[in-house]
User: Which sequence fits this backbone?
């Protein structure tokens, strides 16, 4: 026998995606939740429900980054309907962009 198939029915799938802060609007005041949908180039979409307070804080932190930033949306995979994946227990993390190294021009050498 050259293969063995193993299955587990208790696994939880986690998923994360990275979004450039420049692609997102700020949170509106007076609403308790943000419904964030991120669509990939191949048509698959991630949908997450986030607390407005958490989204606004992450957005503000990302905007204050001198080099720009990405928001990392992560959570457990919930329902999948067509090409839309629902994230449960979703959260945000801010990842600052790394500055591009300065290259010397031939005139500087």
Assistant:
């Amino acid at each position: 026998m050259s293969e063995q198939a193993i299955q587990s029915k208790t696994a939880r799938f986690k998923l994360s995606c990275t979004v450039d802060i420049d692609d997102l609007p700020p949170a509106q005041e007076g609403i308790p939740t943000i419904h964030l949908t991120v669509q990939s180039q191949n048509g698959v979409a991630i949908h997450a429900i986030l607390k407005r307070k958490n989204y606004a804080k992450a957005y503000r932190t990302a905007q204050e980054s001198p080099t720009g930033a990405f928001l990392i949306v992560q959570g457990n995979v919930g329902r999948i309907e067509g090409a839309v994946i629902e994230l449960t227990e979703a959260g945000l993390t801010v990842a600052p962009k790394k500055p591009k190294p300065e290259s010397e021009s031939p005139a500087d050498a």
